[in-house]
Design a protein that fits this description.
about 475 residues, alpha/beta, 6-stranded mixed sheet, 6 strands, globular
């Protein structure tokens, strides 16, 4: 039974985007042999230590664990069957043992007394009475959680708890003491939310099964969040992880370059080394390879629909600038302008983006994307700077508002450079629909990539920074 559940749990982690190999699954089973399965925290820690390798994946792991290993609540005892009974009469809110007022009175008292067992019992009663859960109804747990917390008036509950604690302390408190009281009760209310959420999840699992509930609560990992549709909070989280991610990637690439042993055989050194072994060449010597760092010309569509994607592309590539021998950036809408000067060492990235939006000459006529005119401007003004070491990267959706795409100019750019790559944040199914001319541009690119999230962007930058020859990049970086 445990093996079946664990297998389903690992499949859910993979479906959520957490990479779990067969070796790691075997390690998890071996770790469980030395774990007290009755200790839930120890059990969870053993699985987390063996199956999760990235701190950003712990939230998805916690969600899947709570679904697949939801606790079966024991039947309520007489003391906790109706936790409102003690507050049924004489309460400040009203009379009646089964109403919301009595439930709230009991909840306030339990939170004031740090009575965790009573809080859990009240959470069960709150879900039973207030969530309105119906067996078989295809409603997510978030809806039931909202209904329960709204009727409990959690914000008002927190204010009342703080007011009671201040009154019990005599009201003469310092700012620090008031802050400590607030933080204490905020933690207790958060615990209440988690108890209610766990109870709702347990009931959903009992009604629908683990697999069905896991699908409804599954959220994309941060690196799998679509940049074009991310909310403000998600965008801020992505910004926070970009720099640590690029530092790690840069270190990995530098290490790979140092260890690479694909240089040509050094015959003279091999013969000299063989003299110590009687002329037998036991240790072939190689010339140290000199991997060439690519020159990058980055062309970004910064029109309204592409602004978010361009922001993260610029930020990611510039954070990796040490892996390129030269990096020049260009922004365009219906005109193109070089913006390399805004990203000098030590410059503030947010300020640079603001300066680009106000100072760069990227609008010529009406501020709608014109890829043909922008490519023409790049080729006319900067085409002479392209060399066989140059890699041109274009980011945008290739929607040129039915204007002349001038795809032949992209062919000229390709002939003058080492490689041309196109990163498109739209799903491939949308290419060549409406005003998209992606297919016409793709004929002049070494590779086109569907890059909708941070994971795909990381994979592409890694391939380019390693200097992978274009002909070897046969598979696009896409889901």
């Amino acid at each position: 039974m445990l093996l079946d559940v664990l297998g389903g749990f690992i499949q859910e982690l993979r479906a959520a985007g957490i990479p779990v190999s067969m070796v790691e699954a075997i390690d998890a089973m071996e770790a469980l042999r030395h774990t007290d399965l009755a200790d839930r925290q120890q059990f969870k820690a053993a699985l987390g230590a063996t199956l999760v390798k990235n701190v950003r994946h712990h939230e998805a792991f916690d969600t899947a664990f709570e679904v697949y290993f939801a606790l079966e609540r024991p039947a309520p005892t007489d003391a906790t069957a109706d936790p409102t009974s003690s507050a049924a009469s004489g309460g400040d809110r009203g009379q009646g043992g089964g109403d919301v007022e009595g439930l709230l009175d009991a909840l306030v008292q339990a939170l004031m007394d740090h009575d965790d067992a009573m809080v859990r019992a009240i959470a069960r009663q709150a879900v039973e009475r207030l969530a309105g859960m119906e067996p078989g109804r295809p409603v997510g747990g978030t809806y039931y959680l909202y209904r329960t917390l709204r009727q409990l008036d959690v914000d008002g509950l927190l204010a009342e708890l703080i007011a009671r604690a201040v009154a019990e302390a005599g009201g003469d408190l310092t700012d620090l003491e008031e802050r400590l009281i607030r933080e204490d009760f905020e933690a207790r209310v958060d615990q209440l939310r988690e108890e209610i959420k766990a109870e709702i999840r347990r009931r959903l699992v009992a009604d629908r099964g683990r697999e069905a509930v896991a699908k409804t609560v599954r959220k994309p990992l941060l690196e799998d969040t679509e940049l074009m549709h991310a909310g403000r909070a998600q965008l801020l989280e992505i910004e926070d992880v970009i720099h640590p991610l690029t530092r790690k990637l840069a270190a990995r690439l530098a290490r790979r370059r140092r260890r690479r042993r694909d240089g040509r055989l050094d015959f003279r050194r091999t013969v000299r080394r063989s003299l110590s072994t009687g002329g037998v060449p036991l240790e072939p010597q190689f010339r140290a390879p000199k991997p060439v760092k690519p020159e990058i010309f980055l062309l970004c569509d910064i029109s309204g629909s592409m602004a978010t994607f361009a922001r993260f592309t610029l930020q990611f590539v510039y954070a990796m600038s040490g892996q390129f021998s030269k990096l020049r950036a260009f922004a365009f809408i219906d005109a193109l302008d070089e913006v390399t000067q805004y990203f000098e060492p030590g410059s503030d990235f947010a300020a640079a983006l603001q300066a680009i939006s106000t100072e760069a000459e990227v609008v010529w006529l009406d501020g709608h994307s014109d890829y043909g005119r922008s490519l023409e401007g790049f080729w006319t003004r900067y085409g002479g700077n392209l060399t066989p070491r140059s890699t041109v990267i274009i980011t945008g959706d290739a929607r040129s508002n039915y204007r002349d795409p001038q795809a032949e100019i992209l062919g000229d750019i390709r002939d003058a450079s080492r490689a041309v790559y196109w990163l498109n944040p739209e799903p491939r199914a949308y290419w060549d629909t409406g005003d998209s001319v992606m297919g016409r541009y793709a004929r002049h690119c070494d590779a086109t990539f569907e890059v909708r999230n941070l994971r795909q962007l990381e994979a592409f930058v890694e391939a380019v920074a390693e200097g992978v020859p274009p002909r070897r990049m046969l598979q696009p970086v896409s889901d």
